[in-house]
Design goal:
The protein has two helices and three strands; from the N terminus they run E-H-H-E-E. With 73 residues, it is α+β, with helices and mostly antiparallel strands. The protein has one domain. It starts with 17 loop residues before the first strand and ends in a 6-residue tail after the last strand.
Length: 73
């Protein structure tokens, strides 16, 4: 099994299911934080981003691409 540098605080293990998260917003440090939240919580965190006006792109371990509603085409 491969391990990444992101650890889910609820389990103490790396999160599973996503291989990439990308966040678009003005503040790069906050974007980095949101990217980690998405990596751990997955697509369930997308509604949180929508309320904050942040756009995101997720890629699953099955190569499925998930975009937030406002992600540019």
């Amino acid at each position: 099994m491969r391990y990444c540098h992101i650890i889910d605080p609820a389990t103490g293990w790396p999160p599973c299911g996503l291989v990439s998260t990308t966040v678009i917003m003005r503040d790069p440090l906050t974007a980095q934080g949101w990217s980690k939240v998405l990596f751990i919580r997955g697509k369930d965190a997308l509604p949180l981003l929508a309320r904050a006006g942040i756009e995101a792109l997720l890629v699953t371990d099955k190569q499925e691409v998930i975009r937030s509603a406002g992600w540019p085409e």
